[in-house]
From TrEMBL:
Entry EC no(s): 1.14.11.18
GO molecular function, one term: metal ion binding
GO cellular component term of the entry, any: peroxisome
Pfam family, one: PhyH
Keywords, alphabetical: Dioxygenase, Iron, Metal-binding, Oxidoreductase, Vitamin C
Cited InterPro entries: PhyH, Phytyl_CoA_dOase-like
Protein name, entry field: Phytanoyl-CoA dioxygenase, peroxisomal
Length: 337
C-alpha cells in the first residue's frame, strides 16, 4: 500500500484534493505507481483511520466479504469453548439464551448430552461469551463498515455436529438480512471467527462473491428429504450452479461479511463438532423497518409462533421490540436501534 499515493499536485490545489480524496485512488499499473487518478465509489466501506488497506476495501466492495487471518487469540478461543461447554452442562445460563439441537436429534429420542447442541444464540447476557463481541481487534474492523456507533445485535456460537446421515448439518444458502428488521444493510456486518481449522470436510462457509450488490431474495424452507433445522430458511429456487467459494479458515481467522451476501455451509463429514463464534453488528444509527407486506413477513410470524410456544405470549411480540431487547452497544452512543 505504501507504494500507492494520490498525486500531490492536484488541479485546484491541495484543499480541493483533500475534499476529493475520499473518492479518488491511485491505481498501480503493472507493478508501477500510476500517476493517474481514478474515481472510486466506496459504497460498502468507510475510511476508518486506514484500518483497511486499499486492496482490502476494494475486495470487500467487489465481493462482499473479507477474511482477516489470525485475528482472535488461541487463549480467547479456549475461554469461549469452555464457556460453551459450561452452558451445555447447564452450569451457566442467562436470560434470552437460546439453545438449539440439530433437527435430526430434536425429532428423535432426547439425548441429554452436551454434544447434541447445534448452536447457542443470543448470549448477550453471558459475559464470558459476549466478550467476543467487544474484542478491540474485531471492533476496529467492524467500525470500517458501521461507523463509530456500534451495536452488537445478534450473537451465535455454532457447534455444527457430525452429520447424522441426513445432511441436516448443512445450512442452506441464505442472506442474513432476511432475519433483520433494520437498515441500511451496508451498515450491518457479520464477524464470524473459526474456533478451529474449518474446511470442506467439516462444513466451511460457502459464499457467492458479489451477491451483496443484489437485493434481498425470497426465502423458504428448502425441500430437503432429511429435514431442515428450525429457522434455517434458504433462498427460494437456489441455483446450485452459481459460482461459489469455499472459505477454508484456520483457528482464529475471522471473516467479515455483508448481510446480503449469499452464503451457507456444507455438511460436517468428520466426527468432531465444528465450532465458530459470530456476532452481527449494526450502526446504532440504523432504523427499524416494518416487515409487514415484505418477504420478511414469514420471519415475524415464525418468531411470534416460537414466542407463543415458549412463553405462552398470546399478543404477538413486535419484531422491533425483540431486537431492541437483544441489542447491546459496544462502542459509541446508542442513538437509534
Ligand atoms: C443470520 C442469523 C440470524 C441466522 C439465524 O439462524 S437466525 C435464526 C434465529 N433462530 C432462532 O431464533 C432460534 C430458533 N430455535 C429455537 O428457537 C429453538 O431452538 C427451538 C426450535 C424453538 C427449540 O427450542 P427448545 O427449547 O429446544 O424446544 P423444544 O425442545 O420443546 O422443541 C419445540 C419444538 O421445536 C422442535 N424443534 C426443536 N429443535 C428443532 C430444530 N433444530 N429444528 C426443527 N425443529 C426443532 C421440536 O421438535 C418441537 O416440535 P413440536 O413437538 O412442537 O412439533
Ligand atoms: N437446494 C439448496 N438450497 C439452498 N442451499 C443449498 C441447496 N443445496 C445445497 N445448498 C447449500 O450449498 C452449500 C454447499 O453445499 P454442499 O453440500 O455442496 O457442501 P460443500 O461444502 O460444497 O460440500 P462438498 O464438498 O460435498 O461439495 C451449503 O451451504 C448447502 O447448505
Ligand atoms: O456457521 C455456519 O454454518 C453459518 C451459519 C450462518 O450462516 C447463520 O447462522 O446465519
Ligand atoms: Fe448466515
Ligand atoms: Mg458440494
Amino acid at each position: 500500500m505504501s507504494a500507492m499515493q494520490t498525486r500531490s499536485t492536484f488541479p485546484g490545489g491541495p484543499g480541493r484534493l483533500a475534499v476529493l480524496q475520499r473518492h479518488l485512488v491511485a491505481v498501480p499499473v503493472s507493478g508501477q505507481v500510476s500517476t493517474a487518478i481514478y474515481p472510486t465509489d466506496f459504497q460498502y466501506t468507510l475510511n476508518n483511520n486506514n484500518v483497511l488497506t486499499l486492496e482490502q476495501r476494494q475486495f470487500y466492495e467487489e465481493n462482499g466479504f473479507l477474511v482477516i487471518k489470525n485475528l482472535v487469540s488461541q487463549e480467547d478461543l479456549e475461554s469461549f469453548r469452555n464457556a460453551f461447554e459450561r452452558i451445555c452442562k447447564k452450569e451457566v445460563s442467562a436470560p434470552g439464551l437460546v439453545i438449539m439441537r440439530d433437527v435430526a436429534i430434536a425429532k428423535s429420542e432426547y439425548v441429554p448430552d452436551q454434544k447434541a447442541i447445534t448452536k447457542v444464540q443470543d448470549f448477550q447476557e453471558v459475559p464470558e461469551l459476549f466478550r467476543y463481541c467487544s474484542l478491540p481487534q474485531i471492533i476496529k474492523y467492524v467500525e470500517c463498515f458501521t461507523g463509530p456507533n456500534i451495536m452488537a445485535m445478534h450473537t451465535m456460537l455454532i457447534n455444527k455436529p457430525p452429520d447424522a446421515g441426513k445432511k441436516t448439518s448443512r445450512h442452506p444458502m441464505h442472506q442474513d438480512l432476511h432475519y433483520f428488521p433494520f437498515r441500511p444493510a451496508e451498515h450491518v456486518v457479520c464477524a464470524w471467527t473459526a474456533m478451529e481449522r474449518i474446511d470442506r470436510s467439516n462444513g466451511c462457509l460457502v459464499v457467492l462473491p458479489g451477491t451483496h450488490k443484489g437485493t434481498l431474495k425470497q426465502h423458504d424452507y428448502p425441500e430437503w428429504e432429511g429435514g431442515v433445522n428450525k429457522m434455517y430458511h434458504g433462498i427460494r429456487d437456489y441455483d446450485p450452479n452459481n459460482p461459489r467459494v469455499h472459505l477454508v479458515m484456520e483457528k482464529g481467522d475471522t471473516v467479515f461479511f455483508h448481510p446480503l451476501l449469499i452464503h451457507g455451509s456444507g455438511m460436517n463429514r468428520t466426527a468432531g463438532f465444528r465450532k465458530a463464534i459470530s456476532c452481527h453488528y449494526a450502526s446504532a444509527d440504523c432504523h427499524y423497518i416494518d416487515v409487514k407486506g415484505t418477504t420478511q413477513e414469514i420471519i415475524e410470524k415464525e418468531v411470534a409462533e416460537i414466542a407463543f410456544k415458549r412463553y405462552g405470549l398470546e399478543t404477538a411480540i413486535d419484531l422491533k421490540d425483540a431486537w431492541m431487547a437483544r441489542g447491546r452497544i459496544v462502542k459509541g452512543v446508542r442513538t437509534s436501534l
